[in-house]
Design a protein that fits this description.
Blueprint: H1 3-9, H2 12-20, E1 25-26, H3 27-34, E2 44-48, E3 53-56, H4 58-61, E4 74-75, E5 89-94, E6 100-103, H5 104-109, E7 113-120, H6 126-132, E8 145-154, H7 155-162, E9 170-175, E10 179-181, E11 184-186, E12 189-193, H8 194-197, E13 208-213, E14 216-217, E15 227-229, E16 242-248, H9 255-260, H10 269-274, E17 284-293, E18 296-304, E19 313-319, E20 327-328, E21 330-331, E22 341-347, E23 355-362, E24 385-390
Parallel strand pairs: 5-16
Antiparallel strand pairs: 1-24, 2-3, 3-4, 5-6, 7-8, 8-13, 9-12, 9-16, 10-11, 13-14, 13-15, 17-18, 18-22, 19-20, 19-23, 21-22, 23-24
Bound molecules: ligand MTE.
């Protein structure tokens, strides 16, 4: 029974008893549990196995600030390549004085850094765009996001070692996977402006090349043996199975830079050609658990600052009356640049409560839109997150 139906004839005391026994929860989670798949030892909802695309259940997602690998979403456009570490080489070429070829052992000998950074797919929450008008692609819910501890080398160190030519403006990344699209097979690629690659600050490097995730070598699905990590940018720029870096005077012509990860209204060839690639991740938040706590309800979730240097989460608010009034949530996790924050809020339900809503505001004072503009590829959905309550 939906909460709405129940709400019409409920008696408040009985409702709270049901909350206490766990009979009330989120509609969406109940639906999910019925279709839960397990990928090896992970508890991930698998959208597709080949290529692997999977996301965690929301209660698993917010158990800790650092997301365990088993609960970390996987987004791959081609099948996962199984690579050997000893034969692996990274090449650096293009507008550099000295092209490089580096083995894993050579990369590991360079100065290492550790970084907490949240990775989120541009398609996170795409299913909510599809509720307005169907969008093709993986119908991600709110779980295409995770926060990990990455270890590896600064991209700028590698670029300085190779020596940048004056005309250098963009850094391309190329993976070792084989993506099939439109009758062609090619590697996934990403690209970032050189300014971002070189923007090393105390709080975060502009970008890094990671070999470790949460103190262990990257798993095959997350890019073993090497991937780029670009803090603050959409996940598509953090290229897995990274084997080639090209320094250029223009953005990469790779399909995933030139055509795919762009905001377009209808997706005509002209629109795609005219629009710039997406780089930064958007301000976002989601409700992940709802539980009874005496006469009140405890709600928890995540909030993501936008990928703008120096901008953090100022506040997270939850509403039980369709946005007429808001309760400020408590931020319960560390605050680090380009990282999500976890939050919890104690909410008392009103007799009219049908759903809960969350929205986040960043340190510039910008708040998530109630509803973002629909776009044909279903990217960057960051409207107020709503969950219906059910019995
Ligand atoms: N790198 C390669 N080589 N191939 C891919 O398909 N997917 C990208 C990015 N890097 C991808 C890739 C996208 S769209 C995202 S959101 C992130 O990887 C997801 O990283 P994860 O699977 O480790 O969570």
């Amino acid at each position: 029974m939906l909460y709405q139906e129940f709400n019409a004839r409920r008696d408040r005391r009985k409702f709270m008893q049901q909350v206490a026994t766990g009979a009330v929860g989120l509609v969406s989670m109940a639906a999910w549990n019925r279709t839960l798949w397990a990928a090896d030892d992970s508890r991930l909802f698998v959208h597709s196995k080949a290529p692997m695309n999977a996301e965690p259940l929301l209660p698993d997602l917010v158990k800790s600030w650092v997301t365990p690998v088993e609960s970390f979403f996987i987004r791959s456009h081609g099948n996962t390549p199984i690579l050997g570490g000893s034969s692996f080489r990274l090449t650096v070429e293009g507008l550099v004085d000295q092209p490089l070829t580096l083995s894993l052992a050579e990369l590991n000998q360079l100065s290492q850094i550790e970084l907490s950074a949240t990775l989120t797919c541009a398609g996170n929450r795409r299913s909510e765009h599809s509720r307005i008008k169907t969008v093709k692609g993986v119908q991600w819910r709110e779980g295409a996001i995770g926060n990990a501890q990455w270890r590896g080398v600064r991209l700028s160190d590698i670029l300085k070692r190779a020596g940048l030519r004056d005309a250098a403006k963009h850094v391309w990344f190329e993976g070792l996977d084989a993506v099939e699209d439109g009758g062609k097979t090619f590697a996934f690629g990403g690209s970032i402006p050189l300014e971002k690659a070189l923007l090393d600050r105390d709080t975060a490097p502009g970008a890094m090349l990671a070999t470790m995730m949460n103190d262990k070598p990257l798993t095959a699905d997350h890019g073993f043996p090497l991937r780029s990590i670009v803090p603050g940018y959409i996940g598509a720029r953090s290229v897995k199975w990274l084997s080639k870096i090209v320094v250029s005077d223009r953005p990469s012509p790779n399909h995933f830079v030139a055509d795919v990860y762009k905001l377009v209204d209808e997706g005509s060839l002209l629109e795609v050609a005219e629009n710039a690639p997406i780089y930064r991740m958007p301000l976002n938040s989601a409700i992940c658990t709802v539980a009874a706590k005496s006469e009140r309800i405890e709600v928890t979730g995540y909030a993501l600052p936008p990928g703008v240097p120096g901008v953090s989460i100022r506040k997270v608010e939850v509403s039980a009356d369709d946005g007429q009034s808001w309760t400020e949530a408590k931020l319960t996790s560390p605050a680090a640049e380009f990282c999500w924050q976890l939050w919890s809020a104690d909410i008392s339900l009103k007799s009219t409560t049908r759903e809960l809503i969350v929205r986040a505001t960043d340190s510039r004072g910008e708040t998530q839109p109630q509803m973002p503009r629909w776009n044909a590829k279903g990217y960057l959905f960051n409207g107020w997150h709503r969950v219906s309550l059910k019995v």
